[in-house]
Automatic annotation (TrEMBL):
GO terms for molecular function: histidinol-phosphate transaminase activity; pyridoxal phosphate binding. PROSITE patterns: AA_TRANSFER_CLASS_2. It comes from the Bacteria. This is Histidinol-phosphate aminotransferase. GO terms for biological process: L-histidine biosynthetic process. The gene is hisC. It comes from Mucilaginibacter corticis.
Length: 348
């Protein structure tokens, strides 16, 4: 049975978070002399001399309307990477605890674990890029605090079997983190709809992919109110800057435009797959629920270098287990995809 206090680090339980000026006074006033800001303004057109909302309420309110999740169940981070790091710092004791990763997967989970001195136990996906539930069960011990699952998975592009994820949620006493960075491109429904059912579930999403806001660095975590309170306790006081908050709000008003981009991306993905299949050096194209495809080739390094010489950059994933011989190709605009295919037709 999952109990948050059983996995929360003792120092975090006893932590008194930093109380910023904007935490101590919330509301509107005519004169602010509490935060040691520059009272004369900033040398920019916008008034960036004031500290931003530390809990980003307006952005969360808009996200709540879009996602159908209460504000109290939303955490915003400086990209999803900050949320990942905060999960390690909140629930994993350095040099003692461990987490389970299921490679091939997003590399930042392991990097963040190493930074925090947390042991990683790796249970490779099956040949079909699905969870090895028996292998995961064998690796879980009393010090296993987190399991990271990327779905749709990066770099393979496929969605993870939903029943398998629910099996972990029902049987693991730690936290299951489902990273849904590419969920907007997927046929599978999001796990945020299951938050009320699973108190040990954390869902990560981002504005960097479908929403086209990678430069703003705004990541989201959805979880129980208890877990969100812990993450807010641990995060830096002003982790999302004012310009990112304002631009995110502006972007979140354009849901229809983003939905049209998603439809176009999916159509271009299908067209790209058909074009690549005609190339004799392409051995396989794995099914994708993301805005990229994993392509197995006869000569990944040669193809990669050839494309670089032509000013086209893809990602060589051929050295990753289960991805041998493969290149990861992001779906571009129609013009970019056409340039890619025309160029590849000249590869010898």
């Amino acid at each position: 049975m999952f109990n948050l206090n059983n996995i929360l680090r003792e120092n975090i339980k006893n932590l008194t978070p930093y109380s910023s000026a904007r935490d101590e006074f919330q509301g509107e006033a005519s004169v602010y002399l509490d935060a040691n800001e520059n009272a004369f303004g900033s040398p920019l057109d916008e008034p960036y001399n004031r500290y931003p909302d530390p809990l980003q309420y307006n952005v969360k309110k808009r996200l709540s309307e879009i996602k159908g999740v209460p504000v109290r169940n939303i955490f915003l981070g400086n990209g999803s990477d900050e949320a990942i790091d905060i999960l390690f710092r909140s629930f994993c004791n350095p040099g003692v605890d461990n987490v389970i990763l299921v490679p091939p997967t997003y590399g930042m989970y392991e990097v963040s674990a190493n930074i925090n001195d947390i042991k990683t136990k790796k249970v490779s996906l099956t040949e079909e890029f699905q969870l090895n539930l028996e292998g995961i069960a064998e690796e879980i011990d009393q010090n296993t605090k987190l399991i990271f699952i990327c779905s749709p998975n990066n770099p393979t592009g496929n969605s993870i079997n939903r029943d398998d994820v629910e099996t972990l949620l029902n049987n693991f006493d730690g936290i299951v983190v489902v990273d849904e960075a590419y969920i907007n491109f997927s046929r599978q429904k999001t796990f945020i709809q299951e938050l009320t059912e699973y108190s040990n579930l954390v869902v990560l999403q981002t504005l960097s992919k479908a929403w086209g806001l990678a430069g703003l660095r705004v990541g989201m975590a959805f979880a129980s109110e208890e877990i969100i309170e812990v993450m807010n306790k641990v995060k830096p006081p002003y982790n999302i800057n004012e310009s990112s908050q304002q631009l995110a709000l502006k972007a979140l008003a354009n849901v229809e435009q983003v939905n049209n981009w998603i439809k176009e991306t999916l159509a271009q993905r299908d067209k790209l797959v058909l074009s690549l299949k005609d190339l004799d050096f392409v051995l396989d194209i794995y099914p994708s629920d993301a805005n990229f495809i994993l392509v197995k080739t006869t000569d990944p390094k040669g193809i990669y270098n050839f494309l670089v010489q032509k000013g086209i950059i893809v990602r060589d994933r051929s050295k990753i287990d289960l991805c041998e011989g493969s290149l990861r190709i992001t779906v571009g605009t129609p013009a970019e995809n056409e340039i890619l295919i025309d160029t590849l037709k000249n590869f010898k």
